[in-house]
Amino acid sequence: MKKDLPVLDLHGVAHRDVLEELTNFYFWEGNGDSVIITGKSQKMREIVEEWLEDNDYVYQEDFNNYGRLNVYE
Fold first, then answer.
1. Does the predicted TM-score (pTM) go above 0.70?
2. pLDDT tens string 8-55
3. SS3 for 43?
4. In the chain, which ranges are E strands?
5. Which CATH class is domain 7-72?
């Protein structure tokens, strides 16, 4: 049976608060393989991708949904 991955939904989160949300989700809550919902905001996507790269996470765009990133530890 496949377990659902944890999801970080950034809809409604201000750009200035994204780094804190990512840090809490991955470092304090201990999530690894997961899904991040960025929505259609290019700026949000850039913030998230830069944070993931700086923290050595591997990710790829969900080919069925531009506003969703699949993250692998």
1. yes
2. 999 999 999 999 999 999 999 999 999 999 999 999 999 999 999 999
3. helix
4. 7-9, 34-37, 58-62, 65-72
5. alpha beta
